[in-house]
Every structure is written in structure tokens, then in C-alpha cells.
Amino acid sequence: MKRYIGMRLVYLLITLFVITTATFFLMKQLPGTPFDEEKLNRLPVEERQLLYASYGLDQPVYVQYVRYLANVVQGDFGTSFTYKNMPVKDIIANRIGPSALIGLQAVVLGLSIGLILGIIAAYRHNSAWDYFTMFIAVLGVSVPNFVLAALLQYYVGLKWGLLPVAFWDSYENSILPSVALSVGVVAIIARFARNEMLEVLQQDYITTAKAKGLTNMAVVMRHAVRNSLIPVVTILGPIVVNLLTGSLVIENIFGVPGIGSLFVDSIKMNDYSTIMGITIFYSAFYVFIMLIVDMLYSVIDPRIRLASGGE
Amino acid sequence: MNKLLEVRDLEVSFSTYVGEVKAVRGVSLELDKGETLAIVGESGSGKSVTSKSLMRLLPSPMARIKNGEILFEGRDVAKLSEKEMQDIRGAEISMIFQDPMTSLNPTMTVGKQIDEVILKHQKVSKAEAAKRSVELLALVGIPQPETRYKQYPHQMSGGMRQRVVIAMALACNPKILIADEPTTALDVTIQAQILDLMRDLQEKTGTAIILITHDLGVVANMASRVAVMYAGKIVEVGTVDEIFYQPKHPYTMGLLASMPKLHMQEEQLMAIPGTPPDLLDPPKGCGFASRCPYALEICLSYQPEHMRCSDTHQAACWLLDERAPKMDDTVGWRERSLT
Question: Least CB-CB distance to B103: which of A204, A215, A226?
Fold first, then answer.
């Protein structure tokens, strides 16, 4: 198992390196500079050169790349161009909190509701409950979450005045964005869990379990759920990453000071170091979650434990 | 009233998109304590459906017991509540399935899977259940039962898994063990071991066995009585000797004739020509009439009743009626096999 994790960590580093490199060169293809073009044009040429030189932007792209890489290896992600002299690391650290909170709440909410809906739908296959769940699932996938966000803001926030409409002052502010984000997760998970459960309920070992005289509840909880969780875990990885790192639209609508909005701003402003910082952060997080997901497999499915040489 | 199990006129139907499939059409059978009854027949003859309906394990709501009684110790299983049924399953009647590779939960240790039955039906602590499970594993001939107890099904061979399934089925000393083609998925050498094991355990525990199979070799080995099923009906029932040496129903004769024999001269195997009738729209008369070399006119339009051949032997065939022309036992099939 240790060997396996070690290998995975090596792959993780290689992946990160490739992503960093690709993003760096693509980013340099963006038109413009991090500076205000109009003001820049008013500067004398020598001062402009000085400004470029102070950020190292006068060098050829590959030199900039090597320098950047060297800094990153030492843990220095540079300073932002837009927020004066703020290290990128600090900016991300400041913004990660809100994104992580609403993301985590959306995952927990979406996963638990989705699983419950899906499992009951499969268990009561072709019943009203099943059709209701599938209706929710289709709705959740096809209605964009910003439409739902606006509805939530209008009804829950404005009309009924139950929760704050937007901004980030207290915990209550996190509830509506989390709910808006979770609906998509509920839809995906419910559909997946239902289909998997239906498949598993057809298996011979479910008949065996019934033949033992177990109650339906015990058959479902002890024998069916765990076996149908395996594929659900697969899609969980990307979902978790998406949600925890923030949804651009939802953060914008609810005025959440998260990473999503920071990312969009940094691209608009050509804030090179912030773009790179967030990209590396996103990818590192993604690869890391995938590693966790793969390790989760072996917890759920004993057959995989052997395959990775754990026994 | 000392029969352990009495099935009367059992009818089971499946509703499908194209209509109602009458899988079991009026089956009656009896089972005494400690005996082994084999139910033989080809695929689709309704033998598995019959056995599953005894435990009410048919997929609902597609499958439905339409008619008939299943009297287990005088109680009608078909009318019990789900809760009462759960108390019978695994404790009074238990079941062994065809494919040991798929009939165990892959994500649960075999020990836990055996514990489960014991904990469900007996008031014992978890530790006691575990102890009993290890004993059961030893009983079914699994070496190092303590180690095996903690293993998952994928760490065992097919034969060993089938032993686990048997241990599970026998955990609560059931009165009836239904074995649905228990050896079909196993190697021939393992088959013999599993059959030996089942016979040994039956001697020790006195459990009655209903053995579902299409393998006449297994029947000869294991059973005391045989019921032959065809197209959802029992066409002949009798002791092993009666069925093997004095078959009365042309289908039984055909089955026996199609068994390859060691001293056989002909290179070709005998087969019963034709296919079983479509149970979506079962024939009015005898289900076998269209394939039967001896079929009479009446066979096509009227169902034959069971006729007594001896105290233990019955067959449902018009040829046994006293008005029917006498048939020469073997000629019909031999003629067929030569053409």
C-alpha cells in the first residue's frame, strides 16, 4: 500500500508539472499585459522598460518560465499584479475559506439527499417515488443552478426574509449558495445511485441475503448499498473538486468572496502570477482528491485491496 | 398430516410486456421429513420458479402465486405475512443457489455472511455466532476455518464458496434445504465432492432436500424420489427406481434415452426433437403432445390427469388411460433417434 501511494505521489508531481507548463505558455498567448494599457502608453519608453524589467517581463518567455518554475519549487508563487504586493499564496488562502465552506456543505447535502433519493427510488422501482426522483434528477441537471439561485434569493431571501440574499457576513450567508450548488449534485448522485442499486438488487447475492430471512431493510443497507457505492465514488471525485474550489457563477450571484470570482478577475486583468497560482492549486487539489477516491475504493471494495498489492 | 411440505395446484405467473407467462401451471408435490426429492426438467420447465415460490423469493410484483397452497407443516406459506415469511427463510427452509461465484456478497467477509443468519434467527451474542460460524466452516470441510472466516469470497475457489453457501444454509438446522442446481457451475471433480458433502450433512442433520437439477446423474446419486417437470407441470413422479427403470411418460423416456451411455455404439446423441411450448399461450392439451412420438388425438385437446401406476408412482399421460392403445415402451424413441 505504501509503495502504491508513493507511486501515485510521483504521478501526481508529473501531472502538476505538465499542467503548470501548459498553462504558463498558453497564458502568455493572452493579449495585453497586467498593466493598464492607457496609462502604460503615457509612460516614457525607458520607464516602461524598467517596469517590465522589475517584473521580469522583459525576458523571453522560456526564461520567465524557468524562473517561475524555480520559484515555485521553492514555494514562492510570486506576488499579485492587481492586489499590490500581496503574495499569491496569501490571496488564495484568504479566499479559500468561503469557497470551501459552501462547497463542503453542498457536497454533504447533495450526497446525502442524492443517495437517499436514489436508493429509495431503486428500492421502490417504478413507483411514484421513483418517478418523482427521476423528475428531480432531470430537473436538477437541466435547470442551471443560477436560475435556481435567483429563485432562492427571491423567495427565501426577499419574500419570506428567512436568510440573507447575498454577501458574506455570517454563517447564514453560506446556506443559500450551498443549497443552490447542491441541487446539481443531488440530481447526479440520485440518478447514479438509483441505476447502480437497480443493478445490484438483481444480483444473486441479494437473493441469498433474502433467503437468509433478513428484513428488506437489512438486505438493502448491509448488502446492496455498499456494493452500489463503488461507481458513485468515481463521480464523487470531480464533483468534490468542482464544488470545493468554488462555482464561478454561484459565487458571483451571492457575492461570495471565494476563489471562483478571484480566478475570473485574474484572467480579465492578466494577473499572471494569480492565474498560475490558482491553476496549480486547482490541479493539485484535483489530483489529490482523485488519489483519495482511489484509496476509498479499496476501503469499500475488498477485491481492489488485493489488486493493489495490499494483502 | 405428517407431510413436511405439501404443495397443491401451485400456479405461478409472470406478467411481462407481451403478456402473462404461465411458468408453473398446477404443480402438486409432497415432501417427507429427511427425504431427498429431485425435480428434473429442462430450462424453462418451471423447476426453479417452483422452488423459489416455496420460499416466496420470486421477484415481485412481476411474479405472482396465482393459485394453490404451499403447506409447510400445515401452514400455508403463500398466505403468510412478509414478517412471518422472514422467520421461516433461513431457519426452517433454506436454499443453495446455482452459482457460488455470484451468490455471495463480494464486499462482506464470508464469516460475517454466516453470522448474519445465526444472529437473525437465534438469540445469541455476536461472539457466539462467530464461534458457531467457524464450527460450520469446519463442518462443511473447509480447512483452517478461523482464517477462512475472515476472508472475502474472492479469496476462495468456486467449490469452497459453495461449501460456504452450504454452511450458511445449514446454520440454523433447517427442516428443508432447497438446492437449485447446486453443482451446475462447478468442475466435475468438485461436483462429486459437493454432492458427497450434502449427503453426509443430510445424514447428520436429517434435513429434507429438494434438489433441482437437469443432471440425471446427480439425481441417481442423491435422490430417493423424482418429479419430472415439463412446461410448468409435473408430468411424472416416482421413486428413483421407478423413474429410471419403468418410466411411464414419453417425456421421461425421452430424457432417459437422451442420456449418453458408456456402451453406446451410435456416435450421435439422441435428442428430443422440437422445443417446449410457449408458456405465454400454453397449449390446451398436454404440453408435450407436439413433440411426443406417441401422441393421440385427445392429447392435443385435453390435459391428462395424473394416473396412478403404483403407490409411489404417478404420470400424467393419456397413454396410461385404459382406453388408450398399448404402446411398446421403447420403439417410438428408437425410431426417432435413427431418423
Answer: A204
B20 with B100, same domain? yes
Q: Among A198, A204, A212, A227, pick the best mutation site for testing chain B contact (most B Cβ within 10 A).
A: A212
A304 in any annotated domain: no
- Whether residue A221 lies within 8 A of chain B, CB to CB, comes out as no
Residue B201 resides in a domain: yes
Whether B107 shows a pLDDT value over 60: the answer reads yes
- pTM equals 0.81
Task: Inform me whether the C-beta atom of residue A229 falls under 8 Å from chain B C-beta atoms.
Answer: no
Same-domain check for residues B186 and B285:
no
What CATH number is associated with residue A119?
Answer: 1.10.3720.10
Contacts of A226 in chain B (CB under 8 A): 107-108
Query: B4 and B73 in contact (C-beta within 8 Å)?
Result: yes
In which residue are the cell numbers 443552490 written? A180
Report the C-alpha gap between A200 and A206 in whole angstroms: 8
- The total number of structural domains in chain B stands at 2
Cα B165 from chain centroid (whole Å): 17
Does any domain span residue B44?
yes
Give the pLDDT of residue B329.
Answer: 52
A301 falls within a domain: no
pLDDT in tens, A168-208: 888 888 899 999 999 989 999 999 999 999 999 999 999 99
- Return the pLDDT at B328: 61
Cell digits of residue A30 = 493572452
User: Residue A214's domain spans which residues?
Assistant: 96-264
Q: Which domain does B49 fall in, by range?
A: 5-223
Number of H helices, E strands in chain A: 15, 0
What's the domain count of chain A?
1
Beta strands in chain A (DSSP E): none
Q: What ipTM does the predicted assembly reach?
A: 0.86
Question: Of B223, B257, B286, which residue constitutes the final position of a domain?
Answer: B223
Query: Within this chain, do residues B157 and B268 fall inside the same structural domain, yes or no?
Result: no
Residue A102 contacts B, CB cutoff 8 Å: no
Among B236, B239, B240, B258, which Cα is nearest to B249's? B236
Residue B70 in contact with residue B5, Cβ under 8 Å? yes
Q: With 70 as the cut, is the pLDDT of residue B206 above it?
A: yes
Could you tell me if residue A67 is inside a domain?
no
Residue A229 is assigned to a structural domain of this protein: yes
* CATH number for B28: 3.40.50.300
Banded pLDDT at B56 (limits 50, 70, 90): very high
Helix segments in chain B, DSSP class H = 47-54, 82-88, 110-121, 126-139, 145-149, 158-170, 188-205, 216-222, 240-245, 250-257, 297-301, 331-338
Task: Mention every residue, 6+ apart, whose C-beta is less than 8 A from residue A76.
Answer: A87
Contact B184, B12 (CB under 8 A): no
pLDDT tens digits along B319-334:
888 888 776 654 566 5
